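Extended Data, record Protein-glutamate methylesterase/protein-glutamine glutaminase
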Amino acid sequence: MKQIKVLIVDDSAVIRKVVRELLSSDSEINVVGEAENPLVARELIKSLNPDVITLDVEMPKMDGITFLANLMRLRPMPVVMLSTLTTKGSDITLQALELGAIDFIAKPSFNELLTTKSSFKQLIIDKVKQAVSVNQKQHQLTSKFIHGKNSKILPFAGTARKDHIIAIGASTGGTEALKVVLTQLPKNSPPVVVALHIPPTFSERFASRLNELCEMTVQEAKHGTKIKEGNVYIAQGAVHLIVKEKNGALFCVFDDSEKVNRHKPSVDVLFRSLLPMADNVQAVLLTGMGNDGAQGMLELKQQDAKTIIQDENSSLIWGMPGSAHKLSAHDVECDLFDISKTLLQHALLTRHQMAAAK
């Protein structure tokens, strides 16, 4: 099997050494070079022709974002960002994903590496392998299409089902895919709860960024928050989000139990919490690696929920929606830009339901 050629770009010699050691422990990966800044990286890319780059977001001489923008314009290739979990680091990472980076990894401090080295090792290996599996040409076309296409707010004129709720799960590529879905929803849409595989601090910045773009009010979910029409609730990193009914109302509730499918928050945990109200639920799986959410979606479908998956052509990674497809857990398979319309159509009461409600 051909090895994956990786170039490490980071201004810290210690981090470069650790990343090289961890990646080189996998027989399918070959670290072909290291660069302490983007100027050196530029020359090494020409001579080494790597398959994947790991890129620090904050570096001297040229910052990671400027370098990434130039790279995606001149020589697009899979890039995995190493990001600090500060507010500034989260904002920069979001910019990187918008520019076309495949994914990101929370960059641990040296002390954190001593205690989390094993889990960090598996994470960075997985991220590199999934990055190289992406059809980069298709990814660039999709990215340009997303950012070149003006999201049009869809109309929602009619009566919504009472206590209707939309649940969305996503992972790799999910920040951009979710942006497409949510920016098309009008402010009177049914409430939306989201489980996305992102770390703490990142979820708050992501919700804030989405709130600037959407007509709906987007916020990081808080424990005990009442779920209301016109609002989107993004699960906090490192805690499961579940929905509970109390006295006829729905609430966001945190669950600090173990990871499920190696994730916390887990999409399966969110979906399964909606089983008691499944006939009034729409569940959506967007792009992402792995199978989180597939089994929960199947269980929801079996209880009469409406289930929707993003199609393979518009997905960065068709792991999660593809796993649901294998289980026949979906009712509808949609292009990314058609999902919002599908959600709104199903959220409306039919004439029969309106007559029954009277």
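Summary. The radius of gyration is 21 Å.
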